[in-house]
Design brief:
This protein is α/β, with parallel strands linked by helices. It is built from 10 helices and 13 strands. Strands 5-4-3-10-11-13-12 form a 7-stranded mixed sheet, sandwiched between helices. It has a 4-stranded mixed sheet with strand order 6-9-7-8.
Length: 275
């Protein structure tokens, strides 16, 4: 709550009373929508006519899901506008599958990577709910720069809505399999044309493990960069430098607090900013 009050104070100082009033209105609207979603046990997303329904298990989860969708809608919209019907889409750090569900309505096939078993099962359930079980393949593993069984830090448990990240330094008892993306393609997993990455600070390792894919297969990529997590490891800017070193052009799509979203492509047609 203290962070929220600070955010509102910053909005008032930077943009004035009208902006603050608008933010308060959206704050109230989100909570009304969360109550409705919780009672219906489902949250419906409509992104320019592309629709998906996600299972809801609590009011807090509904509120988190609505807030996430609203803040990431510009990035989602930018992504779906550049997907093709022939694409294979990799959703790395799929969580409950929102990106996968939207991409499945456009792409030929989707591979969702989610190492936390309950989340992986929810992706499968949401895929079946939306009649895309035959188009979304869920792999219950993490991507990284080497194959290993690693600690998975489930940040806050249920209170964090089962979000977590690979952290070899963590004392978490939860262990997950981590595999380089290049190794999976060598084993027969279809290589991606478009990739989305949201791995809570493990971005550089994921990219390092899929160098060959990035050189030969990937056309476009969207990544949430967890700047504060990377800064703590003295790796600020590593994502942009890595992608630019492989010939991608990198565009900042959106910033929020300690994270920001980038778009990388090889074509130039996607460099006009979010739609």
């Amino acid at each position: 709550m203290r962070d929220r009050i600070c955010d509102l104070w910053q909005i008032l100082r930077a943009k004035g009373l009208p902006a603050l009033s608008g933010e308060i209105r959206r704050f109230v609207e989100r909570r009304i929508r969360a109550v409705i979603a919780w009672r219906r046990r489902t949250y419906a997303v409509d992104l320019d006519g592309i629709r998906a329904r996600c299972e809801i298990r609590s009011y807090a989860e509904a509120l988190n899901m609505i807030r996430t969708y609203q803040t990431e809608a510009p990035c989602l919209r930018h992504l779906v506008r550049h997907l093709r019907s022939t694409d294979t889409f990799w959703d790395v750090g799929a969580y409950y599958g929102l990106y996968s569900l939207l991409a499945a309505q456009i792409c030929r096939q989707v591979v969702a990577f989610e190492p936390y078993p309950p989340n992986a099962q929810r992706i499968l359930a949401n895929a079946a709910r939306n009649l895309y079980a035959d188009r979304i393949r869920v792999l219950e593993l993490a991507l990284s720069d080497r194959q290993d069984v690693v600690s998975f830090d489930l940040r806050g448990g249920e209170r964090a809505f089962m979000m977590g990240h690979v952290d070899p330094r963590s004392a978490s008892p939860l262990r997950v399999l981590a595999v380089p993306g290049d190794a999976l393609v060598a084993q027969g997993i279809p290589p991606p044309d478009v990739v989305k990455i949201d791995v809570e600070g493990h971005e550089c390792e994921v990219l390092a493990g899929m160098q060959q894919i990035l050189r030969t297969s990937v056309r476009q990529l969207i990544c949430e960069v967890h700047a504060s997590a990377l800064a703590r490891r003295n790796r600020s800017g590593c994502v942009e430098r890595f992608l630019e070193g492989l010939g991608f052009r990198v565009l900042l799509l959106q910033s929020r607090r300690t994270e920001y979203f980038i778009w990388a492509d090889r074509e130039g047609s996607a460099m006009n900013g979010p739609g």
